[in-house]
Amino acid sequence: MRKKIIIKRFDPESAEDSYLQAYNVDIAQNATVLEVLLSIKEEHDGSLTFRRSCGSAVCGSCAVTVNGVAILACHTQLSTVNWGEKDIHIEPLGNMPVIKDLVVNFHPFWHEIEKTMPWIEPKEEGERENVVTQEEAQLIDESANCIMCGSCFGDCTIRETDDNFMGPAALAKGWRFAGDTRDSLQQERLELLSEDGNMWDCTRCNLCIDRCPKEVRPMDQIIKLREEAVKAGITDNKGVRHVMAFQADIKNHGKLNETTMPLKTVGVLRSLGMIPMALRMQMKGKVPFPILKDIEGIEDVKKIYKIMGVEE
Ligand code: SF4
Ligand code: SF4
Ligand code: FES
């Protein structure tokens, strides 16, 4: 099969900005994206630069973006890339600065991982090693599978708009250690990860679960972190206040009161800082009426809450 592959190129030594370069390539039926890149490099253009090492979805070095989706190049057959576009567009991972062609600078990614203290601080030393039961090991199994490929980080929708957000891989790593029964720092870890920019800033868009090639399911690990943080009594933060306000609105009215939500979440003082945005929204007719009318069937919603035993 002959296919047009369009690659986003960037040469730091040239005055040019990034540009697109097209290659017409003969591709074997089951060729992976990595094999296609290697064949372009060998047969068309030796200057094309990308990372790879193991070729077996182990080292995590070959992640790139294909037709807008972050993938592991050695783990993805080109024939499975069918996201609605005729040509194949290959770009570097998002949310990180580009060094050259498809190679990005992973410093922002590693910086976030480092913040999570990614090592075990063992509980007091005994004569025996710390025994972990199978059930306890299963709690952190998924998060321990991460190969640090950066695919989830590159496509995270919140990291794209907010450099302060830790991102999915680091939060999954956070759970890897906060959920480890051999560790002595669980409370400190949960407090750290409850700060602004961390576990509560994820909007649960699900993309990181979709992107992860190793079934780490980062968003699920973020939910585990949230549950453990609340159980540990770490509730004085805007994330928990937002969740509580959200569930109270639904329980009492069947829908959200978006006007009072910022007040309940960040408090009066910080809400004042949002006045310019509120005025702009007002001018565009986007400020909802602040007094909520209950939805039809609100009694049924309340019954659901009662059956679930959810109190405010
Ligand atoms: S679920 Fe959360 S962490 Fe995952 S991509 Fe979406 S915003 Fe980012
Ligand atoms: S969580 Fe998955 S997608 Fe994210 S860095 Fe780890 S292996 Fe890659
Ligand atoms: S080359 Fe190692 S994960 Fe793809």
What can you tell me about this protein's structure?
With 312 residues, the chain is α+β, with helices and mostly antiparallel strands. The chain folds into three domains: 102 residues, Ubiquitin-like (UB roll); 125 residues, Alpha-helical ferredoxin (Fumarate Reductase Iron-sulfur Protein, Chain B, domain 2, Orthogonal Bundle); 71 residues, no CATH class. It contains 13 helices and seven strands. The chain has a five-stranded mixed β-sheet with strand order 2-1-5-3-4. It has a two-stranded antiparallel ribbon with strand order 6-7. A hairpin with a 2-residue loop joins strand 3 and strand 4. The longest helix has 16 residues. It is globular, with a radius of gyration of 24 Å. The chain starts with a strand and ends with a helix. It binds iron/sulfur cluster (SF4) (2 copies) and FE2/S2 (inorganic) cluster.
In CATH's first tier, which class of the largest domain applies? Mainly Alpha
* Topology as a string of helices (H) and strands (E): EEHEEEEEHHHHHHHHHHHH
- What is the count of helical runs? 13
User: Rough shape?
Assistant: globular
CATH level 3 topology of the largest domain: Fumarate Reductase Iron-sulfur Protein, Chain B, domain 2
Give the second-level CATH assignment, the architecture of the largest domain.
Orthogonal Bundle
Task: Give the tally of structural domains.
Answer: 3
Which class do the helix and strand fractions yield?
alpha+beta
Low-confidence stretches: none
Fraction of residues in helices? 25-40%
Quick check: average pLDDT? Answer: 92
| CATH homologous superfamily title of the largest domain | Alpha-helical ferredoxin
Give the bound compounds: iron/sulfur cluster, FE2/S2 (inorganic) cluster
* Strand fraction: 5-15%
Distance between termini? 60 Å
Cα Rg: 24 Å
